[in-house]
Amino acid sequence: MAIAMASRLTGFSRWALAAPLMLCLSLMALPASASTDEAKAFVETVSEKAIAIISDKTADKAKRESDFRALLAENADMDRIAAFALGQYLRTPTDAQREQYRELVETFIVKVYVTRLTDYNDEKLSIFGARERGENQAIVQSEIRFTNGREPVSVDWWLIKKDGGYKIFDVNVVGVWLAQEQRSAFTSVIRNNGGNFDALLAHLSTQIGKAEAGELPDVASAN
Fold first, then answer.
1. DSSP 143
2. Contact call for residues 173 and 68 (beta carbons, < 8 A)
3. Which of the 8 DSSP states describes residue 89?
4. d(Cα 76, Cα 41) in Å, to the nearest integer?
5. Which of 109, 135, 169, 189 could be stapled to 29 by a disulfide with Cβ–Cβ 3.0 to 4.6 Å?
6. Are 171 and 177 in contact (CB under 8 A)?
7. pTM value?
């Protein structure tokens, strides 16, 4: 377990050093030949698995959270997401704080979104387009269609090429990029507490506790 934690910390620490340069390069990259068909196929597969996990009413919440965590670990670039969400405070935490933060962010995402999506029942995600974004990125456009007749919800997926395939970096739901929303909330917590990184760790723990109690925490809240 210690080796696994060290591996996650090492990956995240590398991002703490390289993220500013990587983000600049991603904005400067010219369009290339990334396969939009491959990107669409990736989103279709991941979304089908996610919907199956959330819709499985035979599984208890702990099982759905465990399966959702495994899905994230396999298909999302969690080190990049965690680093991005810190914004200008990327290099603020100590190694110990960074390790704790990385663990809390993953748990936060799992518990908050499993709680928020509990009422989903066998919804269908339809993909209707994709475009390249720079050399190693793609945006896939889709929408969730509900079985109860409610209006469809638009969902865009920001994908990053990594390890010979795609990884999820961010998801846009009805016009809001979730990782960017979390970055705004996380940096506000740190800033409002005089740069104290422990305040963010406490904030994440509070939000996780709310989700465990069945409440629906506001991911954009800095309180």
1. E
2. no
3. G
4. 15
5. 135
6. yes
7. 0.78
Q: What is the pLDDT of residues 127-163, one digit of tens each?
A: 999 999 888 899 999 998 887 778 888 999 999 999 8
**How is residue 83 written in tokens?**
């680093």
| pLDDT tens per residue, range 12-52 | 554 444 344 333 333 333 333 447 999 999 999 999 898 88
E strand or H helix that includes residue 123: none
Question: How many CB atoms sit inside 10 A of residue 142's CB?
Answer: 22
Q: Strands of 165-173's sheet, edge to edge?
A: 124-132, 137-145, 153-162, 165-173, 176-177
State the residue for tokens 């996780």.
208
Residue 113 to residue 96: CA distance in whole angstroms: 26
The Cα 28–Cα 94 span in angstroms is: 31
Q: Where are the domains of the chain?
A: 2-212
Cα 151–Cα 155–Cα 158 angle in degrees, nearest 5: 175
